[in-house]
Design goal:
Number of helices: 4
Low-confidence stretches: 1-9
Number of strands: 9
Helix content: 25-40%
Structural class: alpha+beta
Shape: globular
Distance between the termini: 51 Å
Number of domains: 1
CATH architecture: Beta Barrel
Largest sheet: 7 strands, antiparallel
CATH class: Mainly Beta
Radius of gyration: 19 Å
CATH superfamily: Small protein B
Mean pLDDT: 88
């Protein structure tokens, strides 16, 4: 028997999406995407499963060769009592050292930021998708809204 062929419609393991940062696409031109694991406490995982998280104001940062997620708000888990976590603590992200070095080179360019796009579970492990983004100017944001409105109007006329 040969190897089983992979279904082309399925692009990897199934994701259980917890939250998306839709504002990131409004504020940044996303050029590259990266996946990283999260180092979490038990009560944080429980809160993630309940969907009690906000990554809109969060960003990624490289300190001493390691990658961190700063300002992500994972709410306290009500049943955790004294073993609860701090909601806005800095969390370590897991990536290969070579990937972090390549990312550091790109981040040193002017205007680039590491923006969280999506938080999800894959095979029971919490993962975060980070985007390398360059900040949009105000006129870029207005132009994007204008284009979106025009395409919506054209779709409405066709129906």
């Amino acid at each position: 028997m040969g190897k089983k062929s992979k279904n082309p419609a399925q692009s990897g393991p199934p994701r259980k999406v917890i939250t998306r940062n839709r504002r990131a696409f409004h504020d940044y031109h996303i050029t590259d995407r990266f996946e990283a694991g999260l180092v979490l406490h038990g009560s944080e995982v429980k809160s993630l499963r309940d969907g009690r998280v906000n990554i809109n104001d969060a960003y990624g940062e490289i300190r001493e060769g390691e990658l961190y997620l700063v300002a992500a708000n994972i709410s306290e888990y009500p049943q955790a009592t004294r073993d609860n976590h701090e909601p806005r603590r800095t969390r370590k992200l897991l990536m290969h050292k070579a990937q972090i070095r390549r990312l550091a080179v790109k981040l040193n360019e002017r205007g680039f930021a590491l923006v969280p796009l999506e938080l999800y579970f894959v095979h029971g492990r919490a993962k975060i998708e980070l985007g390398l983004g360059k900040g949009k100017r105000q006129y870029d944001k207005r132009e994007a809204v204008r284009q979106r409105d025009m395409s919506r109007d054209q779709r409405g006329e066709q129906e």
